[in-house]
Design goal:
Layout lengths: L2 E8 L4 H11 L2 H6 L4 E7 L7 E8 L2 H8 L3 H11 L3 E8 L7 H4 L5
């Protein structure tokens, strides 16, 4: 069962966006995407909150997340969070292996 985590990074003076940009430019994002069990790692900018960046982070299972948290790059990520004085709000979601119900698919345009 895949696990998706939404992390809302919030700061001041554009620091959340600067953090995401440094994560990209430093190569950390590419390293995370290459980790065993990573499904998705992408940053998004909420239209109504210029001081927040949303990370959508998906993993194959809890073991993959645990290995990621134990990796040396987590120290780099923590240092960057501190550098930009970010605060976080986290949501966790588990995939529905049954897929999209047919009654919902009528509202999806592919």
């Amino acid at each position: 069962m895949a696990i998706t985590i939404h992390i809302y990074y919030t700061g001041k003076n554009g620091n959340a966006r600067k953090f995401a940009e440094e994560m990209q430019s430093s190569g950390i994002v590419q390293e995370i995407r290459a980790e065993e069990g990573n499904i998705r790692y992408e940053y998004f900018l909420p239209l109504e909150d210029a001081e927040t960046v949303l990370l959508i982070d998906s993993w194959k299972d809890q073991q993959a997340i645990d290995l990621h948290h134990a990796s040396p790059m987590m120290e780099q990520i923590v240092k960057l969070r501190e550098k930009y004085d970010l605060h976080m709000r986290v949501e966790r979601f588990f995939s529905d292996e049954a897929g999209l119900p047919e009654q919902d698919s009528a509202f999806i345009r592919e």
